[in-house]
Structure formats: structure tokens, C-alpha cells
Amino acid sequence: MVKAKKNRKMARSRKGRPSSASRSAERPRPGRKVLVIGLDCADPDLIFRVLRDRLPNIKMMMEKGIFGNLRSVIPPITIPAWLCMATGRDPGALGLYGFRHRKGKSYDGYWIANSTTSNSPAVWDLVGRVGKRSTVIGFPPSFPPRPINGRMVSCFITPDASAEYTYPPELKEEVEALTGGYIFDITFRSDKKEDIRKELWEMTRTHLVTAEHLVKKKDWDLFWYVEIGTDRLHHAFWKYFDPRHAKYSPGHEYASVIPDYYRMLDDALGRILRALSDDTVVLVVSDHGAKPMEGVVAVNEWLINEGYLVLREPPAGPGTKLENADIDWERTRAWGWGGYYARIFFNVKGRESSGVIRPEDLEAEKAELRKRLEAMKGPDGGPLKTKVFVPEEIYDECKGDVPDLMVFFGDLAWRSAGTIGWGQTFLTDNDTGPDDAMHDWEGIIIAYDPRRKLGKRIDTASLLDITPTILGLMGVPRPKGLKGRPIKELMA
Fold first, then answer.
1. Which class is 2-291+439-490 in CATH?
2. Cα separation, 304 vs 473, whole angstroms
């Protein structure tokens, strides 16, 4: 119990338009306008140290405002982290543990998160209840777009521009005319780096043109724009820029891609800043940080070697997906999913169709496998420093299709591969395509209030503090159930 409370404390630190009746029940109080620029995967060391002097607008905001690390949630993944930030609720409360989720207790079914997955009100819903208007662009997950008191352009999970991706629907025609064709995402796990670079710039151009137009030409009280391009940039080009990366090659032709991209964003930020009145507080935030990927742990290969996952026949070859393998479920005790972290599921009698673990033995099985995973040695024989979490220990509630264990190999330095047939536990390359970077626990926050000069670094803020902070700045009542608290340096 003591350990459970400790883990829960660690995790904490780090639908539609409301009815006219609900809006009239509360009156807006005097408050500031807030503009949020979200840079997916932006890393503190990269922004605050390595690129600081190349980004004049970000540097100015740091020197005149506050800045520091922003502790992410467990797991520090685009979905659910952004929605945690915008709701003030953790993944357990949202029932979101990643981009895809196990469907019930099936062995191979899954579902993909979207804007309808959670009913928890986002900050734009809360400010809309008191009559304040919001503009939201690219926020994950926001497809399909939901009615808000304002405007919305959906995110990277949008299938393509033929879908209805704006609210109100007529905004789509305006966006298409502005951009010549809005782009939601790119293929970034590829060896065609020049194609990625060109597509990344073009995608981001359509986002920036849209954001600058809506900032300048439309009315809003809250503006929240998330750029997914920074995440794609890191995963595709990190090894060319970071000397710490195992595959770093000095003087590579793509060494300038990361700083060039951030300079483009900084220039756009400068244009946006010049268009704002001094009653607007600007936040630049990220959902998590980034670090070089050291390698990949083939989690199911390891589970096979440890006797947890049993096959009837050897897999067809390297990279075989579990759904294509001949698994003996009557003898299998656990299996895993790949991704930036591993999700482990146990095969429990009465829960899974071919369960073998007695329900009364499940907690002991969790503890034993957790112990083995945390004791795992790396390929060099040294400790891998893997972190394993039991969801019930870190969240007050666990909604949705929750995994039994959440495993962060090498404290997020090693990716998880769910495929089998490799004949070894440790891989040098990602099994789903080239990937240079992993996520990290700390993202960024920069807060700039043109009416004040603060010039202060803070490193105590949590991603869950952002919604309470926005509500405090805007003078909007804070609902019950939010985990974070307003950042005090911005509340004076």
C-alpha cells in the first residue's frame, strides 16, 4: 500500500457545445486571453540550451517570462498526453493509454483512440460554458471534430482532407483556400529522408498559414495550436543532429534539418506575437521530451525465452506479428505489445477466453514478472534500468481497456518491438520502420506575459497544471476533479 501511494503521487506530479442553459448559469469573470503553442516532442535540452540562441523569439519569451521542464504523464505519449494536458486528468481517468488499445479481453482485437473516446471536458469546453470562444488547431485527438464555442481544425489522425475535419463544417472551405490543400501528417518512418524533409516543410506550412490566419482574422479568447511536425522531425532526423546518438555521423547533409525547422517555427511565432494585444498570455508547451533511441527490446522474444509466451510452431520469419503466429494460448501466461513502451497482458482464467492464471494468483504473477523485467540486463551485460508500473498503483481510477503492466525499457531509451522471429531479444533497428528518437519524461513550458517581466526558470510544473493555469488566467471557475494546480508565478 505504501508503494502504491508513492507511485500514485509520482504519476500526479508528473462533448460537444454546452447548452445555453449551462452557459448562462455561470458568468464570465474578467480575465486574460491565452494563446497556447504546442510543439509535440519538444525537448528541454534542445530548446533551452542547444538551440536557444538560434531562436530569437523563443529566447525573448524565456528571458522575459518563465520557462522550465514540464513533467509529462505515464505514459509520455502524444495520445494521451495532450488530452491529459487539456483536461487536467490523468490517463487512468480518461481511459487512454496510447494511440491504440486492446479491444476488451480479446487476444488480437484493438481500437484506435479518437475525439469521442473520452467524455471529460477539455479546457475549451469549460471556457465555452461561460461564453468565451476558442480556436483549436491540430490537437490530438480531435478527429472527428466536435462542436465547441468557436472553431476547430482536426489533428494528425484525420484520414485525409476529403473528411469533414473542421468545426463549423464551413471552415473547411476557408482552410482549403488558404493552404491549397491542408496536410494532417506525413510518412516519417522511412529511409527516403529527402522526401520526408520536403513533406514535413509543406505540411507545417499548411498548419502555420492556417494558425496565423485564424489568430489574426477571427475572434477568440483561447487559442490552442499543436504542431505534430516537431515529433516527426525528431523521429526522422535525430541521429543526424545529436552526438549522443549511437548512429550519429558528424557533418551529415541532414545535420541542419532540426535547427532549420525550429527556426521556421520561431519565425512564425514572431509573426503571431506581433499580432497579439498585450492582454494575451502566451504558453509554449510540449507533451513530452525526446532522447536518442539506443535500440529495441523484442519483448515477446524475451517472454518466449522466459516461458511466459508459448508457440506451437516457430514463426514464419523475423518481424512476424503475434496475430500471424501459432500461439498456444492454453499454455501462455503473458504477452506484450510494442511501441514507445510495452504493454503486458496476462492470460487470466475467466477473463481471457483461454486463460490459464487463476484470478487469485494474478497479483503475484504481476509482481514476479515486474521483478524480472526490472532486473533485465542490457546487451552489454549491464543493468538496463527498466521502469515497470502497475496502472492501479499510479492512477486513482483505471477506466477503459487498461494493460496489466506498463514497461519502459531503459527508462525510455529503448523501444519495444511486439513482433517475433528475430531469434534475439535486442535489436538495433525499429521493427515498424526507421526511428531515431524516443520520448522522454520531461517536456517544456515557456510562459510569456507582455505586461510583466519575470525572467525566471521553474522546473516544478506538471503537464496536468496547464488547464488549471489557463482557467486561472482567463478567470473561469475550476471544476472538481482536476489533478494539477495553477502555476503560481503566472497568477500574480
1. alpha beta
2. 53
